[in-house]
Design a protein that fits this description.
Elements: H1 3-8, E1 17-21, H2 25-31, H3 36-57, E2 61-68, H4 76-99, E3 102-107, H5 115-127, E4 134-142, H6 144-160, H7 171-175, E5 188-191, E6 210-213, H8 223-234, H9 244-252
Helix pairs in contact: 2-3, 3-4, 4-5
Length: 253
């Protein structure tokens, strides 16, 4: 299905919140006899393409896994390049996001980043804070276990300060302190690169998300590849614990 066909299909179920594990930059470069850094730089083009397509299709929230808390274990030179690339993209792309009414935010523990990078992040978030067409969240130094543990810590602080009782702690309470709590529930989680795992990404948020895995490496994942993932989502039956008969009965009303 082409982009125009997708946009013209009024019956298309577009996920409100899409998350992507952008995997395969290094392998893409190695297959071409180039350094891994070249792969990361080419991956930026895919980010631009996917953000633009998501915006056109009416996706309300797009979350990209840019740098996990485990990625610090990579070679020092590669980590340094990734930080420089993050800084470059923030400097160059934020004005375009703002022009297209997209709110930008970073989720994760950014305390390990340089003062200069943290300031760039803050500036970008401040500039785009009031935009409401779509929210672009970039997960940087993020891990799903960290997210849940961090939420539990905040809940414990509330209990310690007598602002919350043990009986008041439930899924909703914890959810309020996790990343992305102000966004629609995660509908679709995409992973490029051929691996079939979620690598500690959005563990809490992905509870009822649909998964879409593709062999395409991230630098090759452009508009049509993203549209294919959306079309696949459109064909899914989301039951949320119900039977197909219950879902169909609700839909038919």
């Amino acid at each position: 299905m082409t982009e125009s066909a997708l946009q013209a299909d009024e019956q298309l179920t577009v996920p409100q919140h899409v998350a992507i594990i952008m995997d395969g930059n290094g392998r893409w470069a190695q297959q071409r006899g180039k350094t891994r850094v070249v792969g990361h730089k080419n991956g930026v083009e895919s980010v631009r393409a996917v953000v633009a397509t998501a915006r056109k299709l009416g996706v309300k929230a797009l979350t990209l896994f840019a740098f996990s808390s485990e990625n610090w274990q990579r070679p020092e030179q590669e980590v340094s390049v990734l930080m420089d690339l993050f800084m470059f993209v923030l400097t160059k792309e934020v004005k375009k996001l703002h022009k297209n009414n997209i709110r930008f935010q970073v989720i994760g523990d950014i305390s390990r980043f340089s003062d200069k990078l943290r300031q760039k992040i803050d500036d970008a978030q401040t500039l785009t804070a009031n935009n409401d067409a779509m929210v672009l969240s970039v997960a940087a130094n993020y891990g799903g276990r960290w997210d849940i543990a961090n939420a539990a810590k905040k809940v414990a602080e509330q209990v310690q300060q007598n602002q919350l009782t043990l009986d008041e702690i439930n899924e909703h309470t914890l959810d309020q302190y996790t990343s992305l709590t102000d966004l629609p529930d995660l509908d679709l989680l995409i992973r490029t690169g051929g691996d079939y795992r979620i690598s500690n990404f959005l563990l809490w948020q992905a509870a009822y998300a649909e998964f879409y895995f593709t062999e395409e490496l991230w630098p090759d994942f452009k508009e049509q590849a993203f549209e294919k993932a959306i079309a696949s989502f459109d064909q899914r039956e989301r039951r949320f614990g119900q039977t197909s008969e219950q879902v169909n009965a609700t839909t038919d009303k």
